[in-house]
Amino acid sequence: MNLIFERVLSNEDVKISEVYEIIKNSGENMFLNQGLIHWRTPYPIESIKKDCTEREVFLIKDLDKNKYVHTFQLKFTYFTSLHILFNKENTKIIVANINKFATIPQLTGRGIGKQSMNFIENYCRSKDVSKLCLDVYEKSEHAIRFYRNRGFRIIGKRPTKYFKVYFMEKQL
Is 10 helix (H, G, I), strand (E, B) or coil? Predict the structure, then answer.
């Protein structure tokens, strides 16, 4: 599959609609097949527009079919670490959170997620990101397996109204 990764800006209404459709269809699929109740209602398109200003939203197109097939968001957090005890300069630490990682349901299992994770890791390394983080619902066993196979590990969990969320991370 020949994929291209496009950044979505807050004024690109057509692309925002594509992101909305992918998240909506993926969410409906997770609600019906995994019982993830929070996907009963689609993620609002207004929130996607806001995300485009606060995060980096990407839309992935299959060039062979000329169709958008996947989306994800990256939120970068910058930390400064003081090393006074060791007489070292301040160290800048950048962490990237991955959100709304979604593929249209008809194309899951075809390597789109793997190619997207490769893109994310390379993109984040070029921005000097030291760690990738994400959260995943305990009932998303396939997603947990996918992330573990990519080198992520569970570092914690917290309950939500209906189930637990696992926090996962990977050092770059």
Answer: coil
CB 63 within 8 A of CB 5: no
Joined tokens for residue 81: 């670490």
Token duo for residue 144: 């947990």
139: Cβ–Cβ under 8 A, 6 or more apart, which residues? 34, 35, 36, 163
User: Is the distance from CB of 172 to CB of 132 less than 8 angstroms?
Assistant: yes
The rounded distance, in Å, linking the Cα atoms of 59 and 56 is 10
Does the pTM exceed 0.70?
A: yes
CA 44 to chain centre: 17
Q: Tell me, what's the pLDDT at 34?
A: 72
State how far the Cα of 121 lies from the Cα of 14, in Å rounded to an integer. Answer: 27
Task: Look at the block and give the residue holding tokens 């998303």.
Answer: 140
Instruction: Give the residue from 67, 89, 77, 98 showing the smallest Cα distance to 3.
Output: 67
Write the Ramachandran bin of 66: left for phi over 0, alpha for psi from -120 to 50, otherwise beta.
left
Helix runs in the chain, H state only: 13-34, 45-54, 112-126, 141-149
Mean pLDDT of 81-93: 62
Please tell me the predicted confidence (pLDDT) of residue 166. Answer: 96
Phi, psi of 40 (to 5 degrees): -55, -40
